[in-house]
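Why do we bother with a discrete structure alphabet at all? Because it lets us treat a fold like text: something you can write down, compare, and reason about line by line. To make this less abstract, here is a complete entry for Methionine--tRNA ligase. Read it the way you would read a sentence in a foreign language you are learning: slowly, and without expecting to understand everything at once.
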Amino acid sequence: MTAENQPTQRKILVTSALPYANGDIHIGHLLEYVQTDIWVRFQKSRGHQCFYVCADDTHGTPVMLRAEKEGKTPEAFIQESQAAHEKDFKDALIGFDNYYTTHSQESKELTQSIYLKLKEAGHISSKRINQLYDPEKNMFLPDRFVQGTCPKCKSEDQYGDNCDNCGATYTTTELINPKSAVSGATPITKESEHFFFDLKGFEGFLRDWLSSETLEGTPHVQPEVQNKMNEWLDDLRQWDISRDAPYFGWEIPGEKDKYFYVWLDAPIGYMASFKNLCDKRDDINFDDYWGKDSDAEVYHFIGKDIIYFHTLFWPSVLKGAGYRTPSAVWAHGFVTVNGNKMSKSKGTFIKARTYLEHFRPEFLRYYYAAKLSSRIDDFDLNLEDFVQRVNSDLVGKLVNIASRCAGFITKQFDGKLSDTIIEPELMSEFTEASETLAEHYENRDFGRAVKHIMALADKANAYIANEEPWKLVKNDETKERAHQVCSLGINMFKALTTYLAPVLPELAGKVQDFLKLDTLNWASAQEVLSGHEINKFKPMMQRIDMKQVEAMIEDSKEDLQEEAKLDAPQLDDPIKDEIEFGDFDKIDLRIAKIAKAEHVEGADKLLKLQLDLGQGVTKQVFAGIKSAYNPEDLEGKLTVMVANLAPRKMRFGMSEGMVLAAGPGGKDLWIMNPDEGAQPGMRVK
């Protein structure tokens, strides 16, 4: 759709892929949310009714296991995750109209309703299948929780559904030497009834949908996506939509211990989040956007790794359940850093929170926008280029226009712009760029828009440099021209900021205050200010340098170390805080022979031990091991004692040390027995 043929006001619903609750938001994720947010802000700036919704994707085995590992309920875990995600998005200036969760009543009702509609229409079937089962955890294993050797290329440590090395796909039962990623046990094969969505039955619909456009002339998918999906249309299958208990998710109506697979209810989360927004507002209706006869536009922004679900499975589910299908699904590529995959060991796997602790969100938003296109190319975040582009474009070009002109307006002309618009043809270049730039934004060619805007910024700076208002203002005869030149500079700056407002919303707010404007929407670029009063200019952006980048990378490495501690296997009884060797060296552990052991009258837990350390040295110890040992079974045994523990006076006598034992207590206690050859009095090192 071009900017010229838009309706007066469009009704638009936009989503980004739902972030999974089992993980932090990182800069790779932010590419998608920034891309979506820029497009949404542009539409709102143009006066359209546009809503942006999203939600945490909360269901599935990984969330269940992660919560269990952290000693939390899944519900508590996903609440904490959602709060962290929302804070990251807010601080990154992602302007959701509603951010929700798939673990909601709206999600449950919609998921179960859609399933029942699909079932009634004959699109659901069931059959018994063989799956890998973890005999130690007593659970069926999802594909990603089975690892083994690829049956095609024999690469080791591959997931249970596809090989990262050769790209082959297969079933978990085909994997060689499979192991459970949950317990490490060798899985067994076990039969279970599963429920399937008949994707094959929608082949004709999908061929038409993938190759056609909306009434507005928008292709449903990008050309690259259409080509790829056409390859897959010949191999459509029944798609497994169920999982067995234990599982965190929504139960399938009418079935026992059967749950919806997370990929069924995840995209329904778009609808659930919007339903929640509709319930909170009186001016929007759910069916106007999702009903079969809806005339609204619905767009999904996603990564290229989930194209299959969004362009084959999701439209078919909507079609089969009697809802409208998406206007378009737009995919983007992966993010690399400095030409390579994001790396935790190199510190380039950067969390959103780590980035935000070092840089303004608008710097990354601008860098992404400057290089984004409508294609599905992978995106490289070159950190040196990032620093250079921020300093050159935002500080050296854009903000520099205002900083060069505003001081003269404030000090020399009472804070008021000139009544005369000097060089109207130059100003027209800025105002007339509106529709071309709008078309770039509409088509998600943000890089082309930014390039055009920065070319105009170069013209503005060149004009100011050529006119030299700092010289003109010193002469009474040319002072008014200085006023006119600087006023034109401020107007050019206003137009450029308006065009960049979808990318730089925080800066746009500052400019709005600086210029004393009630609003700064797309139409503002057409308005030229004359005789207008402005506020005193305040610095809006500061230069950055590579030292800040290096600090961010170091913090990212520290994040990795902390995560490694959390991800490492944990004991039920956690290890105490670390000590230095000097602390340990203060403890004198000795081999001791239990010369005598006897009950202690009046004591429920204690035995009195006489410990022989050799060379005539004995120590008396009261040990709480009565529940596990009879005195006569201990005499003559060797054990280990803390020999330099300060004596403690007890009701039954003086205790001069401590015997080392392991176990939770009761009958489950075992004193330490040294190996053969150890002699009483030997130091344990």
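What the structure line is telling us, in plain words: The domain at 581-683 is CATH 2.40.50.140 (OB fold (Dihydrolipoamide Acetyltransferase, E2P)). The chain has a mean pLDDT of 93.
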